[in-house]
Design a protein that fits this description.
This protein is α+β, with helices and mostly antiparallel strands and 145 residues long. It is built from two helices and six strands, in the order H-E-E-H-E-E-E-E. The termini are far apart. This is Putative hotdog family 3-hydroxylacyl-ACP dehydratase.
Amino acid sequence: MIGRDEILALIPHQGVMCLWDEVVEWDESCIRLRARNHRDPTHPLRSGDRLRAVHLCEYGAQAMAVHGGLRARRTDARARPGVLVSLRDVTLHVAHIDDLADALECDAEVLVEAGQSQQYGFRIHHAGNLLAEGRAAVMLQDAYP
């Protein structure tokens, strides 16, 4: 299992904007992560005292970043930064997530890779119930600014 400190070393999202607490398992094509911060009243994505399900898209995008960081680390490299350019076929099965008692879990899988882009599918669950699913695409940059 990979903990939060290692995740923070892999991605540009720092402090409370790093949404994942641990990597449960991963391989070259997919990753499973877990987070418990959705109940935190100081969560950075909260608005109007709620954390809405649409923010699960950011959890999905960060799952991509963590996976990319882990893949790059295998070859002693650093992952190329990415810019989220599209979300497709997103389905939200709940309205908000701040009242869910257990951890969130995400399964993300590489669907398409090209030289300058990647597309992943993601599914986010809570206690075995599907909360959100969709696809996210990023354009990869050459280097960090």
